[in-house]
From TrEMBL, chain A:
InterPro entries: Spore_Ger (IPR004995), UPF0353/GerABKA_families (IPR050768)
Top-level taxonomic group: Bacteria
Protein's name according to its UniProt entry: Spore germination protein
Claim: Membrane is one of the keywords in the record: yes
Organism from which the protein derives: Marinisporobacter balticus
UniProtKB/TrEMBL annotation, chain B:
Annotated GO CC locations: membrane
Compartments where found: Membrane
GO BP annotations listed: spore germination
Domain of life the protein comes from: Bacteria
Source species of the chain: Marinisporobacter balticus
Family of the protein in this entry: Belongs to the GerABKC lipoprotein family.
Domain Spore germination GerAC-like C-terminal residues, every copy: 223-387
InterPro entries: GerAC_N (IPR057336), Spore_GerAC-like (IPR008844), Spore_GerAC-like_C (IPR046953), Spore_GerAC_C_sf (IPR038501)
Name of the protein: Ger(X)C family germination protein
Keyword Membrane: yes
Record keywords, A-Z: Germination, Lipoprotein, Membrane, Palmitate, Signal
Main location: membrane
Length: 529, 390
């Protein structure tokens, strides 16, 4: 246990410059106003209390970040209702606020006494209310966070037919809750930290103590600690700052919008990072195999899961190689085609003014332009772009004789095949490499394609994600060979007794012995030897 | 960073500066479907009106071969272009390389031989040993022409075959390929590709090749030509060729007619297996063929009660069929011995591989010994299906 506590011990505590709270009410207020000057969204609600309005008091909060009902109805009303006759001091105000706890509106933990003005300011900016009372050398921080947020809705990427349709939102707390709902295990830990000098973005590191690989966890923490950036706006920022090789075209960290994917990853022994203000969370380490999996592979029965997965691998080969193969075959090796096809291709390319390479490059580039336009345009128009671009342009180009009809088929097939990949980032990588391979093939034919593939595979063999080989289990040791049960085919669940080996995690049993005591009627109930 | 930049420049320049090697766009290629090679005949030149050329082409000492090539108009195939469905070009010259070179000067495309389906040799050329050896060597050496193409011999001139226009399939080469596939069913032509011919010629200097015949708008691939010592020595008829194919164990299906009583019954073979053996017995060499075949009874007589259903009758038909067939194969074997003296069935090869001791004895005079070998044929034909009658 000592390991985890050491790892997350807050070493930064000492570095913070403290600005102690003084007894003088006005001095404290001026200091805050000075620091938060020109921040017009910060509201100062000053009021006096007690006999002759002697006790000065101010509530400071950022408008829009707090739950105003909570503040007005339960906090301010409680303390303002204090008798105006008696001579009261800050202690009784404090007491009144704590009374709100009894009403069950605020939790004890929601009220903090702080003696550092900087800490108070951080609280104000993250949505808490700060209460400064006269003649007290502490300030009161009341958690009153409440801002308009998007509800849990279906994720826009990684859609599945069978499977939960809740997706992460922009709010960290909701996201962690969505995962916690799937892992009701005390060993499931959520450690929070802040990143970004100015943005102070919350980041939650999630892992299951018994399945996680400690050295990977340590690596994650160390790399996060090294980040020194002014703002983290999206999980992509974190991803790019902690990945192993920034030169690689391949994503080395998996991003997902789905809490079930995160939960499954955690059960496998991986580590999840949830970043505030974005619905995309990160999963490390990632291998090429994990990036090509979809939760549906597991939700469906294994025949279907395996078939779909094989289909997906085939699609990747198509998406990566089809245009370059077309170029190679038409320009260099027409002998490889069956005679009838070769004659047809030759005929259909008659009068096409460009060589196959230029033709393919133009068409593929045109498709990428269309795709980009489709993404940028508002939803309703996006579909129109598909029709105008795909159908009208393609048809017109063929009829004008600028491209051959086969090329249009090749482009369309590649485009569709690329979209079978569940992970968007790796699909982009393959699309990029497609162009590289097209150049290789345009210059050297099939020989060039093989050269290009050798280059890509050399790089892939070399690539690691948090110390785990990116190509595992293909670059396997004897242990990771077992992971092939979940690569091209997904074996039935009852055969997946161990967690994946590539993480070298500690607790390896996924599936215990099936319960023998429950008899299912009509059939072999246990399926175990 | 510097190192990286240099590496990138190196890779890119080595790719781009060296040029695109043998890149030829597919539409710029002429897919030669069929090649016809003939012996040059001085009367060929007379047709040419161009005076200079005529003289040159009439010069037999300079011109030995006439090569005719045919390639399809791909535009017509893709439904794009119009005009003739095939182009035919011919040229004369000293050797094949020369002629192809001069053809290239006349065709706007690059000739491409990977999809060539057949090479047709005229009889005059095939009967000339020196020329046939030259041609075979040129084809064997060529990296572009595969071993799966068909080398055929036509009794007339090869260019007549190329000039035949079929109505069915516009691409001549494809038509011939399809025809070959179809003909395998009737098994009346030699199922022999170029690979087999080369191997057989290398091993025993004998081979059979399919024979192609043409009329105005029709082809027929039937029978075979026999090559011995690198020249054509004779032809085998359709049925004889079929029998040879039985000896080669290359039969997929065929029909044999059997005369039972006063009926001629066709039996459609569906499966056949041949085992060849060569052995020495009482100082004489025997070649034996054990053929096990299965077939269907395909025709009898309308309203003959009982007979085909009768087990005894079927056995009788089987027995007669086997006997008839044995005789036919024996006759063919003897014809090969007598007419050509050529070891077509590769009995010598069998001896060399399986009976090296015997082979050593006969190796030197094999050409004389083979015609004296005896043949033994055992055929067992089984009738599996008799069809349905009321």
């Amino acid at each position: 246990m000592g390991f985890f506590e050491d790892l997350f011990a807050d070493k930064k505590e000492d570095e913070r410059i403290k600005m102690p709270v003084k007894k003088d009410y006005q001095e404290n207020l001026d200091k805050i106003k000075e620091i938060l000057g020109s921040c017009d969204d910060v509201i100062y609600r000053e009021f006096n209390m007690a006999k002759e309005q002697k006790l000065k008091c101010v509530a400071i909060y950022a408008e829009g970040l707090i739950d105003t009902n909570l503040l007005n109805d339960y906090v301010l009303r409680n303390i303002m209702g204090l008798s105006l006759d008696t001579d009261i001091e800050f202690r009784s105000v404090k007491q009144k606020i704590y009374e709100a706890v009894k009403d069950g509106v605020i939790a004890v933990s929601d009220i903090k006494e702080v003696d550092d003005i900087n800490a108070g300011i951080d609280s104000i900016l993250s949505g808490d209310t700060v209460l400064i009372l006269d003649k007290w050398d502490k300030i009161l921080v009341i958690a009153s966070k409440g801002w308009p947020m998007r509800g849990v809705s279906e994720p826009s990427t990684e859609t599945v037919i069978r499977g939960p349709s809740d997706g992460f939102t922009e709010t960290l707390r909701i996201n962690t809750a969505l995962v916690r709902r799937r892992i009701r295990d005390p060993k499931f830990k959520i450690k929070q930290m802040q990143l970004g000098q100015r943005s102070k973005t919350d980041i939650a590191i999630m892992y299951i103590e018994e399945t996680v690989n400690k050295s990977i966890l340590k690596m994650v923490k160390e790399r996060l600690d090294k980040i020194n950036i002014d703002a983290i706006l999206e999980s992509g920022y974190v991803e790019q700052l902690i990945e192993d090789d920034w030169r690689s075209p391949f994503p080395q960290i998996q991003h997902t919008q789905r809490p079930d994917v995160v939960a499954a990853g955690l059960y496998e022994g991986r580590i999840a990072l949830i970043i505030d203000n974005t619905p995309f969370s990160l999963l490390v380490p990632a291998t090429i195999v994990t990036l090509l999996q979809s939760p549906e592979d597991y939700n469906e029965r294994f025949f279907i899961g395996s078939a779909i997965r094989i289909l997906r691998f085939l699609s990747i080969v198509i998406a990566l190689l089809l245009p370059s193969f077309y170029i190679a075959v038409t320009s260099y090796h027409p002998g490889m085609l069956p005679t009838d096809l070769a004659l047809y291709v030759a005929g259909s390319r008659m009068n096409v003014p460009f060589p196959a390479f230029i033709e393919a490059f133009i068409m593929e580039a045109a498709f990428e332009v269309l795709r980009e336009a489709g993404v940028r345009l508002p939803g309703a128009i996006g579909g129109t772009i598909g029709i105008v671009g795909g159908l009208v342009l393609g048809q017109a180009a063929v009829q004008a004789g600028i491209v051959s009809p086969l090329m249009v088929i090749v482009v369309a097939l590649t485009a569709i095949a690329a979209y079978t990949t569940p992970n968007y980032s790796i699909a982009i990588s393959f699309r990029l490499l497609r162009f590289v391979l097209m150049i290789f093939s345009g210059v050297l034919g099939l020989y060039g394609i093989i050269l290009g593939l050798i280059l890509i595979f050399t790089h892939l063999c070399n690539l690691k994600s948090f110390g785990v080989p990116y190509l595992s289990p293909f670059v396997a040791s004897e242990m990771t060979m077992k992971d092939f049960k979940d690569v091209f085919v997904r074996v039935p669940l009852r055969m997946m007794k161990k967690r994946p080996e590539f993480l070298h995690r500690s607790d390896s049993d996924r599936l215990g012995k099936m319960r023998q005591d429950i008899k299912i009627e009509g059939g072999d109930s246990n399926g175990e030897e | 960073m510097r190192k990286w930049r240099m590496l990138c420049i190196g890779i890119i320049s080595s790719l781009l500066i060296t040029g695109c090697w043998d890149k030829v766009e597919i539409e710029k290629r002429a897919f030669v479907a069929l090649i016809g090679i003939d012996k040059f005949d001085s009367k060929d030149g007379k047709k040419n009106k161009d005076s200079d050329k005529t003289k040159e082409s009439q010069d037999i000492s300079r011109n030995k071969y006439v090569i005719t090539i045919a390639y399809p108009n791909t535009g017509v195939i893709a439904g794009k272009g119009e005009g003739e469905s095939k182009y035919i070009y011919a040229s004369v010259g000293q050797n094949i390389r020369d002629i192809l070179g001069s053809l290239n000067n006349r065709i706007a495309r690059v000739m491409f031989f990977r999809h060539t389906k057949a090479i047709v040799l005229g009889k005059a050329l095939a009967s000339d040993e020196k020329m046939l050896r030259e041609v075979l060597d040129a084809i064997e050496r060529s990296p572009e022409i595969g071993r799966k193409i068909n080398l055929m011999i036509t009794p007339g001139e090869a260019k007549e075959i190329l000039n035949t226009s079929t109505k069915d399939e516009p691409v001549l080469g494809l038509f011939i390929r399809e025809l070959m596939e179809q003909s395998k069913r009737s098994a009346r032509m030699a199922d022999a590709d170029f690979g087999y011919i080369l191997r057989s010629l290398h091993e025993s200097k004998v081979a059979i090749t399919p024979r192609i015949l043409s009329s105005k708008d029709q082809f027929k691939i039937a029978g075979s030509a026999v090559l011995k010592n690198f020249k054509m020595v004779g032809e085998l008829g359709e049925l004889e060729t079929r029998n040879v194919m039985f000896m080669f164990d290359k039969i997929q299906s065929t029909v044999i007619n059997v005369k039972v009583d006063d009926l001629i019954i066709p039996i459609g073979m569906t499966d056949s297996k041949t085992k060849m053996k060569v052995f020495e017995k009482d100082g004489e060499l025997y070649t034996s063929f054990d053929i096990e075949a299965e077939g269907d009874l395909e025709q009898h007589m309308f309203e003959v009660k009982g007979q085909p259903l009768d087990n005894k009758y079927i056995q009788k038909v089987e027995k007669i069929a086997s006997k008839t067939f044995e005789k036919q194969i024996e006759a063919t074997y003897k014809k090969i011995q007598k007419d050509f003296g050529a070891d077509l069935v590769q009995a010598g090869e069998y001896l060399r591989k399986h009976e090296p001791d015997t082979w050593k004895k006969v190796e030197k005079d094999w050409d004389e010994i083979f015609p004296t070998t005896k043949v033994k044929v055992n055929v067992a034909i089984k009738i599996r299906r008799i069809g349905v009658t009321q």
